[in-house]
Amino acid sequence: MDSTNAEAMRVAHDLRGPEWILALRQTAGRGRRGRVWASPEGNFSATLVMRPTESPDKVALRSFVAALALYDALVAATGRAEIFSLKWPNDVLLNGGKLAGILLESAGFGDQLAHFAIGIGVNLMSAPDTSEVEAGATRPVSLMSEAGVTVTPEEFLDLLAPAYARYEAQFVTYGFEPIRTAWLGRAARLGEVITARTTRENYVGTFETVDAAGNLVLSTAKSRMAIPAADVFF
């Protein structure tokens, strides 16, 4: 399969409800901003495709829903919570290294989305070499190398899908606030100085919180800023 997100867009029109798409190998996996995401056999590559009814800004908050579900699935797979943390906007860290990423894609017109895809990649068995990622990026790690745990993609989906369903129900019933609170409780470098790199600027400041819109709130030497999109560096 080229990528699970691409497959999601192809089949979305025929779906009657949410559906998971799992690939045992991807030939054209991708991450945020068009970056290549390596997807060798043994790693996890899946997409949840759905037809949401909310506004696009609220739909996008499901990246936090997915991150919490990933966290819970990884804890269930390893029996350890202390080794995992969540990196804004959409990564899961293991011992400080990048283990998993989330890619959101949608199609529609104006304020109405026809369908929405949550792509998830997890380095279960192997991770790219540090030479394959951009300078300053978080080092890639795998679950096998860092935690010594072997999980197949099928087994991991059996952990992830029900975890996502639980948080999705919470999100739909109670809104973003309990999701935001839970995410902050697992956040990497909260209260510490980080760098947020947008397409135009680098901002250095203290990571204060994530606000009600999912923005990164950064306290810099000049001001307190809410940043909607950026790459974060430690």
Describe this structure in words.
The protein contains six helices and eleven strands. Helix 3 (62-78) crosses helix 5, helix 3 crosses helix 6 (176-184) and helix 5 packs across helix 6 (176-184). The protein folds into two domains: 4-184, BirA Bifunctional Protein, domain 2; 193-233, SH3 type barrels, CATH 2.30.30. The strands form two sheets. A six-stranded antiparallel β-sheet has the order 1-2-6-5-4-3, with helices on both faces. A five-stranded antiparallel β-sheet has the order 10-9-8-7-11, with no helix packed on it. It is of the alpha+beta class and 234 residues long. The mean pLDDT is 91.
How is the topology of this model organized?
Layout lengths: L3 H8 L7 E5 L20 E7 L5 H4 L2 H17 L5 E4 L3 E4 L2 E13 L2 E11 L20 H5 L5 H22 L1 H9 L8 E5 L4 E9 L5 E5 L3 E4 L3 E3 L1
Helix pairs in contact: 3-5, 3-6, 5-6
Short description:
The protein is α+β, with helices and mostly antiparallel strands and 234 residues long. The protein has 6 helices and 11 strands. The chain has 2 domains: 181 residues, Bira Bifunctional Protein, Domain 2 (BirA Bifunctional Protein, domain 2, 2-Layer Sandwich); 41 residues, Roll (SH3 type barrels), CATH 2.30.30.
H/I helix tally: 6
- Write the element-wise H/E pattern from the N-terminal end onward: HEEHHEEEEHHHEEEEE
**Gross morphology:** globular
User: What percent of residues adopt helix (DSSP H or I)?
Assistant: 25-40%
Structural class: alpha+beta
Number of distinct beta strands: 11
CATH level-1 class of the largest domain:
Alpha Beta
Q: Compute the average pLDDT.
A: 91
**Biggest sheet: strands side by side, in what order?**
1-2-6-5-4-3
The CATH homologous superfamily of the largest domain is called Bira Bifunctional Protein, Domain 2
Distance between the termini: 34 Å
- What is the fold-level CATH name, i.e. the topology of the largest domain? BirA Bifunctional Protein, domain 2
Query: What would you say the CATH architecture of the largest domain is?
Result: 2-Layer Sandwich
The major sheet is characterized as:
6 strands, antiparallel
Number of domains: 2
Q: pLDDT below 50 for ≥5 consecutive residues: which ranges?
A: none
